[in-house]
Fold each of these.
Amino acid sequence: PSPLTGIVAADGIEFRRGLELAAEEINTIGGILGRPIQLEFVDTESKGDDVVSQAAQRLVDRNNASALITGYNLETGTVLPEISADAGVICMHAQTQVTHEEVIKSDPDRYWGSFMIDPPETFYADGLLEFIKELETKGKFDRPNDKLAIITGPGNYSVNIADTLNEKAKEYGFEVSLFETVKVPISEWGPTLSKLRADPPAVIAMTHYFPQDQAQFMLQFMDDPTDSLVYMQYGASLAAFRDVAGDASEGVLYATVIGALQDEIGIAFREAYAAKFGADASPNSGGQTYQALYMYAIAASLAGGVGAAYEEEQNRKVAERLRGLIFRGPMGTYRCVQETQSAYAYPAQTNDPSLGMPHIFSQIQSKAEDGKLVAPWPYIVADFQLPNWMKS
Amino acid sequence: MSLDTTPLLQIEQAKAGYAGSVVLHGINLDINASEVVALIGPNGHGKTTLLRLLSGLIPLISGKITFAGKPIEATDTSERVRAGLVHVPQGDQLFPEMSVEENLLMGAYLCDDPAETHNRLEEVYTLFPKLKDRRTQYCNGLSGGERRMVGIGRGLMANGRLIMLDEPSLGLAPLIIEQIYQALNELTKSGRTFLVVEENPVRISEIAQKISLVQGGKVHWSGTREALQSSPELSQVYFGGH
Amino acid sequence: MILSKALSRDLLISVGFVAALALVPIVFPERYFVGQIITFLIWSMVASQWNLLMGHAGVFSLAQMAFFAIGAYTTAMASRHLDLSIWMSLPLAVLVAMVSALIVGAACLRLHGAYVALLTFAIAEVIHVLIITDTYCYTREGGGCLQFFGGATGFSRISDFGFRPFLKGDWILGNYYVVLLAFAFVTLVTMFVMHGRLGLAFRAIRDNLGYASSRGISRFYTQMTVFAISAALTGLAGWAYAGHFRFAGPSLFDFSTLILVLSMVIVGGLGSIWGPYIGAATILIGLEWLKEFGDAKNIGLGLILVLVVLFAPNGLAALFARLFKHIRPGKNNTPKSRT
Amino acid sequence: MDIFLQVMVTGLTLGALYALAATGLALVWGTLGMFNMAHGIFMTVGAYGAFVAVDMFGFPRPFAFVFGLAAGGIIGAATYLFVARFMIGRRNFETNIIVATAGIAILAQDIILKIFGAYPFSQPVVIDGKFSIGDVIVPTQRVLILVGAALLLLGVNILLTRTKLGRAIRATAMSIDAARLMGVRTSRTYLQVIVIAGVLAGAAGIMVSSLSTLSPQMGGNPMLMAFVVCVVAGLGHIGGTGLAAIGLGILEATIQYFLGVQYGFPVMLLLVILFLIWRPNGLFGKQLVVRL
Amino acid sequence: MSFLICTSATATFGSLVAVDHIDLIIERHSVVGIGGPNGAGKTTFLDLISGLVPLREGGIELDGVVLDGMPAHKRARLGVARTFQLNAGFDSMTVYENVLTAVVFGNQTASRRKPLWSRADHHRTCAYLEEFGLTEKTDVEVSRLAALDRKKLMVVTALASDPKVLLLDEPVGGLTPTEIDEFADLIIRLKEQGHTIVFIEHVMSFLTKVADRAVIMHHGSLIFDGVPSEIAHNETVAEVYLGSAAAQMRGDLS
Ligand SMILES: Nc1ncnc2c1ncn2[C@@H]1O[C@H](COP(=O)(O)OP(=O)(O)OP(=O)(O)O)[C@@H](O)[C@H]1O
Ligand SMILES: Nc1ncnc2c1ncn2[C@@H]1O[C@H](COP(=O)(O)OP(=O)(O)OP(=O)(O)O)[C@@H](O)[C@H]1O
Ligand SMILES: [Mg+2]
Ligand SMILES: [Mg+2]
């Protein structure tokens, strides 16, 4: 159940591709205990719970699905666990929402089958502020003032990050000088920019995550840049951002709690992905479902095979294996937090990179390439550079 | 009477109607150039339908229609107008959100000469001075009679060879009716031909060379007005006591 | 008071239809299938009310989905903020939808045609945008932020019809019969309205406003009544929707959702009696069938919409009626007597 | 002062975009009474047309622009020839055409999605460069959009009110039978109008995408806005449409600046609602007169 | 016995004064025919009485009730019934439904609060259809009716609301002489039943035959008010309205 049409179709299509690539690879080495993986897709139209639940229900009842795997949907994040609980099947997603944890904790025995393969969005705010602090301690960044500007879109994901940032800013000595919500999609940033220019902050954090909107922001920002560090949530990690923003993309920071790494495994995956789907395809989105399917296949094999829909007993065994699994894929390491059935965050929850999903910060240093990973250790491939529009 | 023996318009065994009901059951009618032919007959027996058929607003089911020597059954309404067959419909069908003058100018849509268009416009204004007063008013506010004047005026602007008028005197003051019929008389002299649906017996006898009685979807009787008047039976039935 | 022949006939058909629907889940208990029928019931309720407003009363309103959403949101908010059970929020949902409709209806009184369409659409869109751009956290549950109107994601996991504890895995059957009951109610009320005095007034005003007023029909009264009735029943559908999906969210305001339901009305036949039901069924069956082809779903939907209006410009209901006449010729020639 | 300038620049840009998007819609709606739900997709097609011309055929930008316009015109013609033609003048035309064009929109959008994917390409047909007024920097592209919008509006306005073709178009819209009785070839008129609207939409699509990106659903929002603009202006008033669009654009920018970006659109709509209640026929529309 | 009283009634459209301070008193049970050149303001005058056009100045009173400012539908229920020049009707509804609508909504006694209509309403509707010879057309959609039937239908629907005053706008325009005679008989019958009738007509033979009083309007004002046989002898009327028809009428009358 993925958004194959509508406003976030770009991501939804990558989710499908990720699954396709993983299934192809797994099937060539024999599938799950000799049985090939068979994929079925239903479009969720970039819509809410009602459509997502019907789509998932269809996969369960009509396609006899054993597992529901997706990246994210524009739903509240509570529907897939419901459907999977009712049907006794596994559900894996990268919704990146703390709501998932709430659902699981509300009735662990009912939601035994639902897994979020990345940490919730609440880590983003702390992570960002920590990251800036570290830059400062290392002397790579000197804040010109104590102001922080936050720009968010309407989605819960963006809002939650923005809200936490807003709250925590004080602890790190920041004062929030602008908190702006925008309607999306948005291409005209004039009013927001004139407010920024009237009162330039040290850091601009944009938690609205559509790449094309972020790119327009940068284009218009660069007409008359302020002396500020620019951070963008998720969207800037996609090729489209660089493509649209061009030169204006250079210097932008972005972060994601689930993104393809730039080490040996990550690069191999990126290459395989580009080879199959072309240079425009985005491994950062596709990797989520790719990694999820691998995890599922391993867990199912260990459990002795998959259970069909409504065959709860066998699927519970698969879920048990998933809870115990530690898996290092192109996006980093997955290890399950038992009570919330979501991934451990590194460095926030563990200081061992081999035991948590890294919250990676990257900076675009050339418009021709993906951003370079600048934190955390040991995944770093380049040093943070002060963006060329900044004075100090 | 012209020497040319082939009629301007020839209708043979025409059948037509609306979805689900055939209204015309085989019409036969000839119209010669430069004459006024009047169609009379009781209400609802197909006069309007016949005119709509001739101008191509409804399709022919079977039969033949020839205009100026050419069959026209298959041609589109706008092509028939281009050939000179002009229809002033019942209910006017004005362009409601256009001014009186724009409506009249639409009548001369096919005329490419601005001077000529202007002349015709002036002629219409002389015939209907009332319209000149109201030239800038949108047609949706016009009174019933004013609408009729615009409808007729628009038809005259087209300068057609055969002009079909559906109840031209409907809703008009007696004085205006008189003027219209005078104008028609003059226009026939300049070679124009008219097919007029008319209920008013006095007017018909004044100008029509030929009168055709449409009843039950057929031409029930056709002849000169003298013949009609000399047949007490017919005139009694259709003209009542007059 | 008399039951005209047409009314008795349609009431009879309605009862038969509902009875047949009542048997469906017993014969085909698959959850997805039952869920789809529930969707059909909900959309056809909305479509039938839209048809009442647009087809019968001639008010080109695009706010119908907003009334539906208002019903659903009222239910969800009552459950989330006030902890009301879904049964308690039923009258509330209907009432709030109706009151909103009266306001919208009053605002539309002086407008005609496309202007009504815009005004109603704009009102719906204002509500939509205000809801989705609201970022102020009304409550926080474990780090998650919940806006007063649910924000961009809406409400989920609200209280449901409460069948899970005792029907267990068959809870959906409970939902089904609740929604079916609502459907039956809506259908019967609609039949009475359409074939009654109000129906006459609606059509009279649609045909010729000025003439209707000089025959004693008040536009104000009639238009307010039709807005109120259709919105109240649409609100009821919204309530059923919220109860079944345990959800109310901004996708209800989506333009694509609006077009989908509007297509059901028009494909079925604007101004007909059974059109909305036929339209809803046709489109849902079509969509379902197209899902079999995976990728082709939207292409197929587009084609279906185009082809239906091309080949059945008066709607499928009219088309079926024509076919029916061909099968039983002569029936329509005898004048109907009315008592 | 700077703020004023900034708001004006933003407002005029928004306004020009709205005007561009609205003109084609107003043309077919105001003159033919046909609410074209596919207008947004016409824009999309135009934008992708220009993109393809540069990216795949390597045309120079001016050619690519014309290519985009042609693409818009062609899908307009196709809409008429394959669909609208059979519906015009029939019962329920107004509502049926909404569904039919919505169908076309869904169909075409999905085809674009299938061909190009959902990847947000950037529009190659743009003019680079910028200049500054005071402290406000104005990209040349925006001026181009403003000027382009003004020219197109003016052109269409003159076409409709001053030319014979314009009168024929309006006549056809008001009464198709009567127009044919005047000798107007109505089906050709319809075709002409829809093709013009398609070309306008193509231009709008290229401009809109030059300020954001290409995507299969890019036409959706501008079309909704166009819908609002048309009605505020009063249906069928092309000149008024331009003024209304600019006015709304500036209004929205002002609200965005002073109340916050999120309120720009809804507060503007709210004002539109109040305005319509006050003036039921829009800014330039005349009161509907029906005599019985 | 003044019944319908118009004092200084005025209607304007922009700068055009369509009805210009008309004072007119119409007695109960009288039949008044209105004539006048096209665009004189006759229809607008009836619109003023029936409430479709707002009064700019003056007042209108019917049977002691002040009508000014009252919406059209209320006046209809009070007993102002009218027909229209352009043959208005509910086009997509059947003849039966058209009459039923008038019966159900048109008069004060109508059971407006009930959801369905009563058996009595049905019977009244059928009786009207029968009386005016429309029974055969009961189930015909009005858009398919021919002109004569539409005219009849309008009169029937007007009568169906139990009117106090019947306003007819060109009732016989476009009818054949025999049909006009038929209609004249109908109006005379209504007159005998005690109806008060005001009608507009350009067909002078009809006007002189059925009216007991003739009023001629010109440019929004009255230029003649008297017995119908006198019209043709009034010079202004002959000049602006009748033309050579005046002479003919005089001939006919002598
Ligand atoms: N649109 C239509 N659909 C179906 N039937 C129609 C339609 N228009 C007219 N008719 C029917 O066709 C028949 C002939 O009508 P037509 O208008 O041609 O008569 P007419 O002789 O012109 O009468 P009138 O003097 O009333 O204008 C009538 O019985 C009428 O009911
Ligand atoms: N809504 C309106 N807007 C503008 N002008 C109007 C409107 N209604 C009527 N008029 C004008 O008022 C004048 C009187 O119209 P009215 O319809 O009363 O005339 P009438 O006496 O009934 O004429 P006829 O005999 O032609 O029906 C006409 O010149 C008409 O153009
Ligand atoms: Mg006729
Ligand atoms: Mg009149």
Note: DSSP finds 14 helices and four strands in chain C.
Amino acid sequence: MIGTPISPVSAVGRVTANRYVSSAFLRLDIDLGLPFDFRPGQFAMVNEPGPGGWTFSRPFSVLAAADQTLSLLYRVVGRGTAALAELPAGASLQVLGPLGTPFPAPTAERSAVLLGGGVGLPPVLAWCERWGRKDDIACFGARDGAEVPWELLGPRWHVSVDRPNGLPPGRVAFTGVVTGLARTLPGLPGPGRADILACGPLPLLRAAARLAQERGWGCYLSLEEHMGCGYGVCKGCVVPVVRGGSVRNATCCQEGPVFAAADLPWLGEEDGGRGEDTH
Amino acid sequence: MIGTPISPVSAVGRVTANRYVSSAFLRLDIDLGLPFDFRPGQFAMVNEPGPGGWTFSRPFSVLAAADQTLSLLYRVVGRGTAALAELPAGASLQVLGPLGTPFPAPTAERSAVLLGGGVGLPPVLAWCERWGRKDDIACFGARDGAEVPWELLGPRWHVSVDRPNGLPPGRVAFTGVVTGLARTLPGLPGPGRADILACGPLPLLRAAARLAQERGWGCYLSLEEHMGCGYGVCKGCVVPVVRGGSVRNATCCQEGPVFAAADLPWLGEEDGGRGEDTH
Amino acid sequence: MLPDWWQLDVTEPFTLGPRRLPGRIWTASGCFGYGLHAHDFRSPGGEGPYAGIGAVVTKTVTPAPRAGNPMPRLVETACGALNSIGLENVGFDAFLADVLPALEVRGVPNIVSLAATTPEAFGPMVARLHEQARGYAHWHGVELNLSCPNVAEGGHDFGSSAATVARCVASARAALPDRALLAKLTPNVADIAQLAVAAREEGADAVSAINTVVGLDVDLRTGRPFLPRRFGGYSGAAILPIALAKVDQVVRGAAVPVVGVGGVATAADALKFFALGAVAVQVGTAQMRDPFAAAGIARALARGPR
Amino acid sequence: MLPDWWQLDVTEPFTLGPRRLPGRIWTASGCFGYGLHAHDFRSPGGEGPYAGIGAVVTKTVTPAPRAGNPMPRLVETACGALNSIGLENVGFDAFLADVLPALEVRGVPNIVSLAATTPEAFGPMVARLHEQARGYAHWHGVELNLSCPNVAEGGHDFGSSAATVARCVASARAALPDRALLAKLTPNVADIAQLAVAAREEGADAVSAINTVVGLDVDLRTGRPFLPRRFGGYSGAAILPIALAKVDQVVRGAAVPVVGVGGVATAADALKFFALGAVAVQVGTAQMRDPFAAAGIARALARGPR
Ligand SMILES: Cc1cc2nc3c(=O)[nH]c(=O)nc-3n(C[C@H](O)[C@H](O)[C@H](O)COP(=O)(O)OP(=O)(O)OC[C@H]3O[C@@H](n4cnc5c(N)ncnc54)[C@H](O)[C@@H]3O)c2cc1C
Ligand SMILES: Cc1cc2nc3c(=O)[nH]c(=O)nc-3n(C[C@H](O)[C@H](O)[C@H](O)COP(=O)(O)OP(=O)(O)OC[C@H]3O[C@@H](n4cnc5c(N)ncnc54)[C@H](O)[C@@H]3O)c2cc1C
Ligand SMILES: Cc1cc2nc3c(=O)[nH]c(=O)nc-3n(C[C@H](O)[C@H](O)[C@H](O)COP(=O)(O)O)c2cc1C
Ligand SMILES: Cc1cc2nc3c(=O)[nH]c(=O)nc-3n(C[C@H](O)[C@H](O)[C@H](O)COP(=O)(O)O)c2cc1C
Ligand code: FES
Ligand code: FES
């Protein structure tokens, strides 16, 4: 449904840019020295080259790829991302990608409701850039206005913030969660006429699944699991998927990170009604 | 004999300069943020600060100390020194020093014959800068003319090279080993009238001990041993010293690195007549 | 730059028990799946991740499929990792039906890693394997996983007794006349050489040493172990000196060929095992990080023009 | 930033067996000498290297002086180190005559580490110690080093049998009524909890876990082990997960107070041991690198205004 798979490439690239594009997110551009292509929703494993670096590479969704340059968007959360943030232009990085199952490509019958939260933006933004049509709806949620990487978002993007501070002059944002924002938008598609494509923290994914259910839409979610290999060999990243009543483990890195919400009934259960979109 | 010991200080310093001063030697200046003093022959343990870095700190002789700045001279030989060479100005370094037993201070009755080989230069250069008198003799040996850090050596320094290439215009050097050079110098002190103070590779130290014996001079040698702690607690750096016929282990880091050659009779033995100063 | 004493070409065939194997750099069980995940991976050098590899030791399979342990299963530590995968695998039937034929078709040299909950269960598994794969050119042998510390039933204690090792090896050997039989030993014992002796005496062609070391890490946010089962198997660079010590103990104490495993990420790491007398070396955790790791080491340790 | 569950102040006195100790962060045996080398060391913060330390566990002393093993004795590895010091020490007589009084005079809280070549030799050593140091305020106890893997006579096997551990502890306990008695256990066994049970049953007030892990590293220039005795004791960051696992096994399997040792370099590392239930933590290799390491950890884990 998404064409022939793209062979992953393992290469040592060179950082060409690495800078904050908002108060909390950095954009990293890596020249891989060879052509790189991907499908929106796929990711790359990144590490320092050579025997140094971290035992496990770090997964990051592909934000964009132009010719030989791969772009990522990330936030500093631990030692790997802290080290990434220190890298000057010219530094070397080991990259393996693209990996994983992407978001579905568009179909004529259904429009897309793109929901991105925080550093969950890259896959939905990439989808929008590549495939976005007039009727597709694009919403991005951040903690506040300063965290939003405005320069990356075209005019079609609707923005929600938890706190309305830090908004640049002339920018508007909905105060609340991103699914709350989506609900306020005019002309939402009818049942069976849209798919949600979402990536972000778990509460966002749960809220997205619930919204899809309410509206009778399809729903595809990009999950995050800690990863060992990123290419399916270690079984360190499994997610239970339920089909036809039987549970089995799917690798988040290979069978995911994008899953049909229908296969993840536990998403709703664990929530226990405390879904973030209720506030 | 050398005054009250100087208390070692442990501090995180800031690199103020780190550059090649010859084809193979770098000079590293570290601002410790507090006054630093030392005696020539003492060393400092250096490491990256924090839990990163190397399990064991690396020992380097103190080249100079001016106010709060500690200077080292080093050559890249392995992973620690390779990492040092990459440090930009502004980088942080953990320093513990000054450590170890220095060279003896000058006495009125005896002149000093300073012999430094390669990165064995710092302690003898430091001695010369602090205490050098007209009659003291200073010789430095390197592989070739390019390796010599000419800018550090005052006019009193005699230089020997293994190969006479790479000499800057206007510079002269003896071709041969540093003890060979010393032998050619006019007006060498008589028996009992001088002490050799030497630091450098083992063949140089052996040759120095032999020269001292031939001439009836005293001899103090700065030894190198791989070190764990650098301050006497681990017993990882011991050197057999022989006094009055009985052998015991001395810590190179605390009882050394400077030893009287008389206490190291094994120096001559192991040599087996293949001493570098014979060519 | 290879040291003077190094005389081998690890990409040349060598004999292990009744079998010629195509090379001495292998991937370790559980760290490269069933050897079927990286066929289309590319690198600027052009050579694929299988080039020069002597064998893929496949993820351990058990008689029945296993869902493995609860998540999280992996913890990265300062210089290695803990895993508690719990032997998730497709089960022996699916392995025979789907995996092994695929390896043969793709020409992936392989050694099949097996685990069972009783020593005597190995014989029938090996017999079925042998029957189905008798004519396979790329199936080179069996590695008995006697050491996985993560499995509740048996697990840790299973491979730490020489008597049990002996029974496992004897059972498998009887059913495996013409392929290499390896016993993979646990390091979590005081005397690994004794286990190796037991394996040799019952006819193992080699032992693989080591499996993971028992380790634990604490999540400071909760004050509890990261892994639901508390302990995990410690692997990666941190265990290299331990693996070298165990391999040395076996080489000098048991007179059986040894395949070195543990902490290998570079050609230099692999050389250390060969220096101690290992006949082959496996790449585990490093292969997870870089699917080209083993191939790169093999290339670095091949002699001659390249 | 300390986690919510953390409630202790490691610089407050606590009870261990018959004794109040001044704090819970100690330096490990062999990594801070006899505790007499760093008194004049300064740091910008102003506090000395002994500030807040609960005890210096002194370098193990043996009945007679020992010259130790041949050089080289240390190898740095990727994330730790191997040592083969071979228990170089001044001997028990000199220790009693010179070292222990100096520690008392300087007010260094200390625990004396002892080794001997037979279990029954501990009793008389402890008795002499007790006799001389009975009135000392800063001598808090004895740690029996039952685990040094570097000593040829006995060494490795010495502390790996529960029966021997029991004999050593019994012998020492009989002579040590009013100071803490600790047994330091080797990790190089399949079941460390069993050793701890033996120690507890004979009256040890606590066990220290772990001593170094057997390791080896190869010098690629020669193809031979770096250390003349081939094996060394592996320590440093690399062994932290192993030490945590062993401590957990002892805490949950032996119901005896445990002092955690192995790979501690930061307050976070120490917290992991406390999270598992350790009553105190020792800093070894990291103290060699930084004489202020233990003091820094103690400061970080002291509560209240500072
Ligand atoms: C498919 C996928 C796509 C992702 N895309 C992005 C992205 O585009 N931008 C972005 O900023 N982040 C993204 N993440 C999360 C990112 O991988 C983590 O933030 C990163 O691994 C943290 O590494 P660290 O060393 O800084 O954190 P540490 O906490 O020090 O890492 C310790 C270990 O935990 C793992 N880990 C920690 N947090 C996460 C997490 N949230 N998800 C997965 N593993 C984690 C690390 O990989 C490492 O193995 C993605 C994760 C996945 C699984
Ligand atoms: C008292 C003393 C003073 C010294 N002064 C200087 C100096 O002024 N300038 C200079 O360039 N070098 C000096 N050295 C040598 C310097 O310590 C080593 O070059 C350095 O430790 C190498 O570290 P590495 O990580 O690059 O090498 P690696 O080989 O990667 O280091 C591995 C281990 O071996 C140790 N090691 C390696 N070579 C030596 C050596 N020659 N001596 C001691 N330990 C070694 C390292 O400290 C480390 O523990 C001195 C050594 C001593 C003992
Ligand atoms: C994620 C993971 C899964 C593993 N699964 C297995 C397994 O199924 N069977 C087995 O014998 N060893 C298994 N191992 C152990 C490795 O094969 C190897 O013995 C160990 O990791 C040490 O080598 P390394 O440091 O190179 O990883 C596994 C290791 C890891 C990290
Ligand atoms: C150089 C060195 C010497 C040691 N000497 C002793 C010793 O004499 N007695 C002892 O019980 N342990 C000794 N040890 C072991 C340490 O006390 C400690 O148990 C071990 O190193 C693990 O802790 P670490 O990782 O913090 O170093 C020594 C360790 C090192 C590195
Ligand atoms: S991360 Fe290894 S299988 Fe997914
Ligand atoms: S280096 Fe530790 S005693 Fe000298």
Note: The two ends of chain C are 14 Å apart (CA to CA).
